[in-house]
Amino acid sequence: MRFSAQSWLVAAPGGIHPPTNVEHDLRGVLTDVCGQGAVVCEPAAARARWPPWWSWDLLLTSHAWERMADRGISETDLRSMLESATEYQRDVVIGRWRIEVEHEGWLWHVIVEPDYARELLVLITVYRVEE
């Protein structure tokens, strides 16, 4: 399945541009197939095209609760951050995804791992991106 270049953007070295070959894999998860480490992202208005796991119930691990407390993030803050998410990409750990969000004027990363068997989106951690 291919998407219209007008609906998607690719953030890669050198700027943001329409993708040349982005498609869903067999689970319906977006796959970057350009081979240059690009990130598939989309505007919030097109959120309906995020992977199916995006709408699953959120499960917070004990580690996530601890990190959130350390960083002064409440569950309400977290849910608000996720509502305004505009970008996601594969994380360095296989099977996990990094969601980019803003909170109080700062860029934050929310790391999630879809649990396909239980259809839960497991929150691994959340942290502010330091420049």
Radius of gyration: 15 Å
Structural class: mainly beta
- Mean pLDDT, rounded to whole units? 73
The proportion of residues forming helix, as a percent range, comes to 10-25%
Q: What's the CATH class label of the largest domain?
A: Alpha Beta
Low-confidence stretches: 1-45
β-strand number: 10
**H and E order:** EEEEEEHHEEEE
Concise account of the structure shown:
The protein has 131 residues and is mostly beta strands. The chain has helices at 62-70, 75-83; strands at residues 9-12, 15-17, 22-24, 30-32, 39-41, 57-60, 87-90, 97-103, 106-115, 120-128.
What topology emerges from the helices and strands here?
Layout: E1 9-12, E2 15-17, E3 22-24, E4 30-32, E5 39-41, E6 57-60, H1 62-70, H2 75-83, E7 87-90, E8 97-103, E9 106-115, E10 120-128
Parallel strand pairs: 6-10
Antiparallel strand pairs: 1-2, 1-5, 3-4, 7-8, 8-9, 9-10
Question: What does this protein look like?
Answer:
With about 130 residues, this protein is mainly β. It folds into two domains: about 1-40, no CATH class; about 50-130, YaeB-like fold. Helices cover about 15% and strands about 40% of the residues. It is built from two helices and ten strands; from the N terminus they run ββββββααββββ. The chain has helices at about 60-70, 75-85, and strands at about 10, 15, 20-25, 30, 40, 55-60, 85-90, 95-105, 105-115, 120-130. The strands form three sheets. A five-stranded mixed beta sheet has the order 6-10-9-8-7. The chain has a three-stranded antiparallel beta sheet with strand order 2-1-5, with no helix packed on it. The N and C termini lie far apart (about 35 Å). Residues about 1-45 have low confidence and may be disordered.
